[in-house]
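Incident review: delayed structure delivery

Summary: a single-chain prediction request sat in the queue longer than the usual turnaround. Root cause was a stuck worker, restarted by the on-call engineer. No data loss occurred. The affected request and its eventual output are reproduced below so the record is complete for anyone auditing the incident later.

Affected input:
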Amino acid sequence: MSAVARVRAAVSPLRRRAAAPAYLPVAPLPTVDALVADLRPEEPVHCIRPATLAATARDFVAAFPGDVLYAVKCNPDPAVLRALWDGGVRHFDCASPAEVGLVRTMFASAEIHFMHPVKARGAIREAWARHDVRDFVLDSAAELEKILTETAATGVGGELGLIVRLALPKGEAVLDLSGKFGAEMTEAVGLLRAARPHATRLGIAFHVGSQCLEPLAWRRAMEVAGAVIREAGVAIDIVDAGGGFPVSYPDMEIPALGAILAEIEDGFERLDLPNARLWAEPGRALVAAGGSVVVQVQARRGDALYINDGVYGSLADAGVLGFRYPVRCLRPAGVEPTDMLRGFSFFGPTCDSADAMRGPFFLPDDIGEGDWIEISQLGAYGACLRTGFNGFDRARIVEVSDTPGDDIPLSLAA
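Output delivered after worker restart:
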């Protein structure tokens, strides 16, 4: 088998034009094991599983009682976006002109929503006039004025959607998002009233925090939104329940998606807004399982493995945040790793001593230089966070057709 993969520098799917071929015209490799057996890579390899992505999207879209907006920042790779489209995602949460342009180039009929609460004036004009974006989030009077001024300045008409981002108290999410964006309740009331005369669609949005493990957090957020809506006394067309839908990592118990959606749906019904649409902005929940990275061990020192990727590459969340990922050792067929496991820490390839991931990551006790490791659940915030620091910016990206999980064998295919 001849393996062909595209090689890119640093992160940047957003710097490439989607109109250009993102992939060479070859069939996806059948398995990660076959990929490594053929390439024997000495640089990181990002493995994208389109079938997994499409199936996950299909399930979420079917389960959620409203519009599903994929948070593009989570993974903007064109192959990922195509797989989500195949799974039924038609709405995209974008935060920059580059994300907006990428989605519009790929999907002419996509519904694009500019969900960053603080935008450059030129970004508003470009999104409105060039890419037909009609929905904009705001969390201040200054941002409302900016949106109204810049959309009018283009001379292009259209139905304007204005969504007020509501601040929430600090919660129990793994990644708290309460400190940067959002209008406090009194300010949000004023913004809804001020925006209503200008908006074809008026909405209220919130975000309970990334990787939120508490279904009741959405119920409480809905109650806060309801209090603001009642005080504002204006018609509301959209309630955006944001993101934060969690995925499973080792030693992290997550609630069932159904339990979260039940709280969202019940909270929404309690608002008694029969003409309003319900939105959600999942990112991690749609794409985490659909991607992994294969790294190679370059040295072993006791319980520390020196690998060719790290916190300046795909493993940023394994550094300061201490995320642990599912891992497995890959070796050529016939060379079986021992059944005895040991907890290892990782060091990345750069010269920075902060390029460290404490884990522990449980791998065969006899792992050593030259072995490969597949690190899973990295479809979210993996490849897109790569940097060019210290020159370690090269990586392959390939599509594979196997499924993630414990059923993947621990040795490479012949």
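Verification: Residues 42 and 189 are 56 Å apart (CA to CA).
Action items: add queue-age alerting; document worker restart procedure.
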